[in-house]
Design a protein that fits this description.
heterotrimer; A alpha/beta; B mainly alpha; C mainly alpha; A: alpha/beta; D-Maltodextrin-Binding Protein, domain 2; 2 domains; 5-stranded mixed β-sheet; globular; C: mainly alpha; MetI-like fold; flat
Chain lengths: 258, 244, 264
Amino acid sequence: MKTLTKFAAAVVLSLVAGAASAQQVKVGIAAEAYPPFASPDASGNWEGWEVEFIGAICKAAAMDCVITPVAWDGIIPSLTSGQIDVIMASMSITEERMQAIDFSDKYYNTPTGVAAAKGSGITATPEGLAGKIIGVQGSTIHEVYVQKYFAAGAAEVKVYATQDEANQDLAAGRIDATQADSITLDAFLNSDAGKACCESAGNVADDKEVLGLGVGAGLRKGEEDLKAKINKAIADIRADGTYDAITAKYFTSSIYGD
Amino acid sequence: MADGSALSASLDLLAYSPPGWGANLLRGLGNTVLIALGAYGVGMFLGTLGAFGKLYGGPLMRDLLGLYTTMVRAIPELVLILILYFAVTDLVNQALLAMGYDRIQISGVAAGIMVLGVVQGAYATEVLRGAIQSVPAGQIEAARAMGMSPLLVARRITLPLMLPAAIPGMANLWMIVTKDTALLAVVGFNELVQESRQAAGTTKAFFTFFMAAGVLFLCMSLVSNQIFARIEAWANKGNKRGGI
Amino acid sequence: MSFADSIRAQMPLRRWVMAAIGIGIIAYCALALNWSWLQTPKYQGMILEGVWNTIWILVVTMVLGFILAIPIGFVQAAGPWYLARPAQAFCTVIRGTPLLLQLWLLYYGLGSLFPMYPWIRESDLWPILRQAWPYAVLALTLSVAGYEGEVMRGAFKGVPQGQLEAARAFGMSRWGVFRRIWLPQAVARVLPTIGGETVLQMKSTPLVATITVIDIYAVASRVRQDTFIIYEPLLLLALVYLIIAGVIVALFAWFESRLPKRIA
């Protein structure tokens, strides 16, 4: 009965969903807001640097893209199970993830920072965070980093589904510090809520093995055509100035990294 | 304390047109209702099959259905959603690839309907089974003896007679499915809870938006209660035989 | 009936076949899937801690929620309107909104108010308010209170008036009637449903993982994230919940078998 049910469900689904046309590429972004890279606005549209970047890539590669928000926590399974075709969700290229999926070339690379309560004197080092409660977004390189370097000395590591929720608990005083991408943290620290409560505690020491080689587009293994297309599009928009034009809209300096 | 200005700031955030987030919440509500209706329909369908299977099916069918309802009723919906969401789409796509077809892309709404529908089906099986059993066997036998076909018996005798017994349970299932749609927020569907969470995250007004979503859910449940009360009154019409 | 007969009655051929298929599936899962992470002491410790958290949260919230449900049900059944109405409204709100939303409203919603009222952080309660589990326990307790309060209302109403009048006629005090007659009979009426309610409550516990409480669901998510193994942690999770549900059902069946069945 259960297989019958599943079969019936599959039939119904194929009716509902229909086979996607061959050219359409489903670009998965995280359903959780990640400003200033991707966040929904009050009219329900996604905006941010990465959203514009995706638009530019799809245009350069002449792909018909559909932006599909997926829970960050399940974004890799969504890719491997075929609900999306590409991940472009500020996902860092790491060895660990490369065992599960493939990556394009990097398209941005920014330092990793720590934000802490104002006047707490916390620094982004194992000593500075000793005995503190650290909040971090789950399934991220930051979680791996915190577990590797800070967890042993910290009072507690709290894992959140979204960085917004970690920021919120930092403002509420439930956690002492949170580690995230420095640009995302800056966006929070420059907001009214962020200014009122918190300040930057500096950037963490780099560890390429954990923090990776920058952010790339995640792909299913073996999809070499799509990978080549995206790599070429990244190179093209960097060469023709589109990339810098988008960056200038959001940031004062380059985020491509070296 | 600036409660007055805090209140008006909250109301501004909930305004229908941007910069208010009201339209997003209503769109979320629309998705919630859509997924709930779809899942309820799928659940009714599976439940009807399941109930007839459990009552009139062979022993093997009954055991398998027992397994289905037990599993669904013992494993948290959240876990079932993750398993069904990832595993079923994966299996479907692998099967399609193996047969030489392209992957299908299963839309979020469709996947949500399927997942919650399978969960609902297990509960609906039990509700409908109980309701069918409440129909006196003599009535059905009499209809058969009159020469009615099984389908006609189902339509003219079993269905109308079981409705009064089934409606309270079905109303309860509707309440459950509307609330269960909230769980889809965890896999990133843009239903009401997820929309309010996104709005809350962006504006930092967590309290305002979760309250607003709660009020919308409450309205939905109050309206549903009214509707089901009417349906129940309608189904019980002509049922005033006193003493039974 | 001999033991062998009862086995034969319980286990006809098709059930043996089903059991064999089941064992086959389990064997396939055990051998073909990747369970290497289960051997890591780190994850073993986390799994035990997660199961323990799930269980204590379940037990504590069921007990507290049921204790709360008694007055909530009673005032609706027999209280004055100024107590009955709020109790009724409470049940409507709890039953009419998703638990996930209630949980987030309590945790993130209240949390977003903290910065506005600095004295909260200076109070003695802060070390507790700062953690996540009190909110999880509160939300789940209120949920039980709301659903069971409705059930208790019916149970209190269902106790025959004659019994209460007879007790009064014996000269029992109002409190005595409540404590010795009304409450025990109402509780006896809902006892058979509590096993099922406990299973339902268990199914709600994984929601606490979304507010950073580390229950077994959170542990499975962690494994999923760390190792990029998708299905195995979910299967383990399903198995753990199946076992807990089985234990709950068995416990209540045993408990019920020890109760006298004199209540009509």
